[in-house]
Amino acid sequence: MQNRTNVLNLVIVLVTFLLSGVAKAEDRQHVIVVVGAAGTDEYGAMFGEWADRWRQAATEGQCDLTIVGQDDQSDDLTSLKHCVTELVQSPSKESVWLVLIGHGTFDGREARFNLRGQDLTAAELAAILQPVQRPVAVINCSSCSSPFLNALSGSGRIIVTATKDGAEIQFSRFGDYLSAAIGNPDADIDRDGQTSLLEAWLQASRRTEEFYESEGRLATEHSLLDDTGDGKGSRAELYEGVRIRDNVKDQQQVDGRLAHRWHLVRSEAERQLTPEHRQQRDELEDQLEKLRQRKTTFADEAEYLQALEKILVPLARIYHSAAADAAEASASKP
Fold first, then answer.
1. In the beta sheet, which residues pair with residue 101?
2. In this structure, are residues 176 and 46 in contact, taking their beta carbons and an 8 Å threshold?
3. What is the pLDDT of residues 226-276, one digit of tens each?
4. Are 51 and 101 in contact (CB under 8 A)?
5. Do 253 and 231 meet the contact criterion of CB atoms below 8 Å apart?
6. 123 C-beta neighbours (distance < 10 Å), count
7. Which of 6-10, 16-20, 286-290 has the highest mean pLDDT?
8. Long-range contacts of 14-19 (CB under 8 A, 24+ apart)
């Protein structure tokens, strides 16, 4: 009973912190939106609308923002390389979001994202991003985008593609639904006050599926998300809410845990955490998830709660430290 009381007290501390007003962290996330060659005015207007949604969400999330493909330049690949070079030179440890909006092609060997000027191949994007040490999410909303997942997958990275393979060549609508979900509180499935990349992806995947069902058409796109670094990716059908379905085997291999910690528009509590705080928190939450999956292996509830307390105590300390740092910073301001 005492163990249960201690655990409940820790939960109360965490909830109280999450509901309190906090200061934002010094570093800012950086969002790069690349608008590809549209081909027609109709597609151009559509891609522009999707990019505007990302712009609005990035602004609301107090992120740095770079748009490639909407200026008078004719060589967008060079512009993208220049933008990434600036990221490499920055001391920030905050997350980088790279969003590709447009058309894609695949010739059976090489996938390309269509740009004004020279197109961007999956292999070339992998080389461009290689020196970036910050956490990176690459979101390719084009057709034929799956090979980008294979080329870019790696530890600490999140890769989202609109298709499950390079053969899905028809125009992709996934980017429409993802841009609408990424900053939308209605996509916040677990109601923690912020919409994660996982939640936005789940909603966008299901809205895409619903589109084809309502049109009576065979779906020509099936999005994948990879954040385990195995280069395989997972489909949204594996999820019930934000939890992996109970009947899914090898749950540790299912992607999404890292993506559920990425938020473009962060809650006030999340903004207070520094990248260092967030990394420590994520490691503890990984342990917490694994512990929950092993709950039935414990001899009794008391043993489980004791193991739970060993994770929740340092987790509470992280939030307490973040709150103290924010209070000190606020007090020092003139």
1. 35
2. yes
3. 999 999 999 999 999 999 998 998 888 999 999 999 999 999 888 888 888
4. yes
5. no
6. 14
7. 286-290
8. 14/312, 14/315, 14/316, 14/319, 17/269, 17/319, 17/320, 17/323, 18/192, 18/193, 18/267, 18/269, 18/319, 19/269
CA distance 28 to 205: 28
DSSP structural state of residue 249: S
The ranges of the chain annotated as CATH 3.40.50.1460 are: 30-269
Round to the nearest angstrom and report the end-to-end CA distance of the chain: 48
* Torsion angle in degrees (nearest 10) through CA of 102, 105, 109, 110: -30
- The total number of residues shown for the chain amounts to 334
Tokens of 187: 């996509």
Q: What is the pTM of this model?
A: 0.85
Residue with tokens 């619903």: 210
Supply the DSSP string of 292-308, one letter for each residue.
HHTGGGSSSHHHHHHHH
Residue type, 280: Q
CATH of 30-269, one of 2.10.109.10, 3.40.50.1460, 3.30.70.60, 3.40.50.300: 3.40.50.1460
The upper half-sphere exposure of residue 77, i.e. CA atoms within 13 Å in the direction of its Cβ, equals 15
